[in-house]
Amino acid sequence: MKSKSVLTWGIVIIAVVGVVYGLIELAKTSPTNQGGAQAGIGLIPPIASSDWTEGDPNATTTLIEYGDFECPVCAVYAPVLNQLMKDFNGKIYFAYRYFPLETIHPNAALSAAAAEAAGAQGKFWQMHDLLFQNQNTWSGESPADAEKTFETYASQLGLNAGQFSADMNSATTTSKIQGDYENDLKMGLTYTPTFIVNGKIIQNPTSYDAFKQIIQQSLGGQ
Questions:
Q1: Could you give the residue ranges of the DSSP H alpha helices within 26-142?
Q2: Closest CA to 108 of 116, 100, 117
């Protein structure tokens, strides 16, 4: 109970900070009262083979996160999502999509490139977790130092160092991340994390239990 209480307040406090940053840096539209959907958002593409996913593709509930590895709010939600995947084992199909907000997070695109490069060697989710767990370390570094830090994470994961570095800095990786970012803006997304459950944007839950309830509702109370 104590850990859930800490988590709840952690999400609330960091979410407030994130909203303040978002209001300053980005022109947002306010969420409507219709299920937390945001006004002006275009059609959300369904989960595809090009996405980084985990869970059962045949699950009745799909959950998509548009995230930024340097976003402190995203880091708070990362363990929440991991716990949801455990508690709803086989009932959620989860996809992570890049939305690097470089105007406020200088290493956002670079960290996404590190995850992409790890994914090329089958370790996307492991790098995903390391980036969020160690966000306070690399988020304050220069891009050059952050890249070296990401290389140490790759070593911890047993990745081929040369391939990791090449993939992280490849034109293909850069193009994919930039393309994702531009598509996110075209859809009307403005903040991270943005969560979509079964094709609809939800208001970010303020606790694990609140998020769990949303998933249960999507499953018809299961």
A1: 72-87, 108-119, 124-133, 135-138
A2: 100
Which residues fall within 8 angstroms of residue 127, CB to CB, at 6 or more apart? 114, 115, 117, 118, 119, 153, 154, 157
Q: Residue type at 82?
A: N
Domain range for 172: 2-214
Q: d(Cα 202, Cα 131) in Å, to the nearest integer?
A: 25
| Residue at 98 is within a domain | yes
Give the C-alpha separation, 126 to 24, whole Å: 32
> Which residues are within 8 A (CB) of 124 and not within 5 positions of it... i.e. 6 or more apart?
52, 115, 116, 118
Full-model pTM: 0.82
* Spatial contact of 204 and 193, defined as CB atoms under 8 Å apart: yes
55-108 per-position pLDDT tens digit:
999 999 999 999 999 999 999 999 999 999 999 999 999 999 999 999 999 999
Q: Can you name the residues that pair with 197 across neighbouring β-strands?
A: 63, 200
95: CATH: 3.40.30.10
pLDDT in tens, 191-219: 999 999 999 999 999 999 999 999 999 99
Among the ranges given (5-9, 18-22, 113-117, 123-127), the one the predictor scored with the smallest mean pLDDT: 18-22
Whether 69 contacts 131, CB under 8 Å? yes
Inter-CA distances, 102 with 74, 106, 136, Å: 15, 5, 16
